[in-house]
Amino acid sequence: MTEEAQRETVAFLSDPQTHGGAEVETITTHASRIFMAGDRVYKLKRAVKYSYLDFSTPERRGKSCAAELRLNRRTAPELYLDILPITRDAGGLKLGGGQGESAGEAVDWVVVLKRFPQEALFSHLAEAGQLTPDLMRRLADRIAAFHRDADVTPEFGGIEGIEQVIRINDENLRRDGPPAISVAAAQALTEAARRAAADLAPLLERRRAAGKVRECHGDLHLRNICLIDGAPTLFDCIEFNRGLARIDVLYDLAFLLMDLIHRGDRTEAAIVFNRYLDVSDESDGIAAMPLFLSLRAWVRAHVTATAAKSGAGEATEARRYFDLARDFLKPRTPRLLAIGGLSGTGKSTIAAILAGQLEQSPARVLRSDVIRKRLFGVDPEQRLQVDAYSKQTTERVYAKLEAEAGSAIEAGCSVILDAVSAKAEERAAFAALAKRLNVPFDGIWLEAPPEILRQRIGARKNDASDADQAVLEKQLVYDLGTLDWHRIDASPAPDAVADAALNAIS
Fold first, then answer.
1. For 101, which DSSP code?
2. SS3 (DSSP) at 404
3. Which of 4, 57, 91, 294 lies 20 to 30 angstroms, CA to CA, from 131?
4. Is the Cβ–Cβ distance between 431 and 444 less than 8 Å?
5. Which helix (H) or strand (E) holds 471?
6. What is the pTM of this model?
7. Which candidate, 273, 267, 266, 268, places its Cα nearest to that of 289?
């Protein structure tokens, strides 16, 4: 069956009479047609065949619908209701058909979902400026939990899996790429990706052997995440190609990060990236992130180009994705940045903004409060007892900060250290670390009037910092010693403070 042969099915699903008179809204993607009527959504696989997908027969589409239902019920059981055949009898097409002898011939299949407001999609939330830091942290927590529970699939992934993605990207972009992307430019991207993959092959294989390749989502961008009853919910995972979903968990995460960066939501990308690493055991894979991000942008480049040919996308958007894919692979020199200041100066807020601005890929933010919680094996927002803040424990925290910073920088990732750093020896240790690693170093010291600090601490909710008013009062009488870091007024709005910090270190 071709898409022309599906015309009758499309007309049938588009007809309000099929849905009891309810108005029908439709969405077309490169692989599906979606029909929204009343409180239901019907997803029809398009009769298309690509190098990575084959929906060319009703049987294949039926099997894919069954797989989609099973896999998406892992993360969104409340949304995925059923699969139904579209049958034909003497009276024409029917949705669902009959039973036994009354059942008609199945000419196609649809996945049936519970309808939710389009405004609940994270893509809409992004456009409305509603991706709050708390929401992004909760999303990262949800993804990390999903990855922890996902089946380990060591027969996939590794260097072979990444080389397969490169081949698919190269073939599809060459076939469907817009004229604005030259053959030479496409070839240069392919060669750069292959070089990066070859360099990372030992790491990719170590992660595969360690169980980091799992049955993931595979298509984890903002349009495939929604807010249901206040909870970030992942849906519409890849079901049609085992190799594209049985992947390194960081490659799965990279799609979301790339999508946020592509949209200009770089702070949000940095928050998700760092929260995910804070609550998971995946920091060893940081070196692979530029390649993973590039491959994800490259995927969107050829998928968008394919959609543009069928009238469901924009060729200029494909070029933007392509340029982003190239940018992620450009050589970079990591740097170490430390942000200090008394409690309430907004160190973590400014660190998150700067982490999205220092370079194309998010920088690693290492926060002393989070490190301390990990040392005690508790969640970042769980409060610790007073004895967790002893001198010995604080020394352990700063030592851990330095060790993790060194690992990230050696992996090619810039690092932002987020800690009070009230002691001169602590600040000197960070500068010495940068010298040992031979990377540029800058220190930012945030300061604001005590009344502002008191107000901010009093307004804190669900924060990793356990500092309260009593802690602040003790800090206010600290002897800070000589401050040779860039001193920044932290009183204004965060964006203004971050701009001042960037200007100071540029």
1. G
2. helix
3. 294
4. no
5. helix 469-475
6. 0.92
7. 273
At 31-48, the pLDDT tens digits run 899 999 999 999 999 999
Say what percent of the chain tops pLDDT 90. Answer: 84
The sign one gets for the Cα dihedral 411, 412, 414, 420 is: positive
Instruction: Pull the structure tokens for residue 384.
Output: 């610790």
Residue 303 CB burial class (10 angstroms; 0-12, 13-18, ≥19): buried
Q: Measured between alpha carbons, how far apart are the two ends of the chain, in Å?
A: 59
CATH 3.30.300.130 at 122-328, yes or no? no
Please give the Cα distance from 159 to 205 (Å, whole number).
6
Architecture of domain 7-115: 2-Layer Sandwich (3.30)
Tokens 């870091």 identify what position? 485
Q: Where in the chain is the domain with CATH 3.30.200?
A: 7-115
Query: What are the phi and psi torsion angles at 35 (to 5°)?
Result: -120, 120
pLDDT confidence tier of residue 311, bands split at 50, 70 and 90: low
CA gap 395, 451 in Å, rounded: 29
Phi and psi at residue 331, to the nearest 5°:
-60, 145
- Picking from 146, 121, 333, the residue whose alpha carbon sits closest to that of residue 222 is 121
Instruction: Give the residue ranges of DSSP H helices in 107-248.
Output: 122-127, 133-149, 158-176, 183-209, 242-245
Which residues make up the CATH 3.40.50.300 domain(s) of the chain? 336-505
What is the radius of gyration, based on Cα positions, of the chain?
25
CA 12 to chain centroid: 37
Average pLDDT value for residue range 172-184: 86
- pLDDT tens digits along 58-97: 999 999 999 999 999 999 999 999 999 999 888 889 998 6
Instruction: Please give the Cα distance from 216 to 220 (Å, whole number).
Output: 9
H or E stretch at 439: none
Where in the chain do CATH 3.90.1200.10 domains reside? 122-328
Q: Which fold has domain 336-505?
A: Rossmann fold (3.40.50)
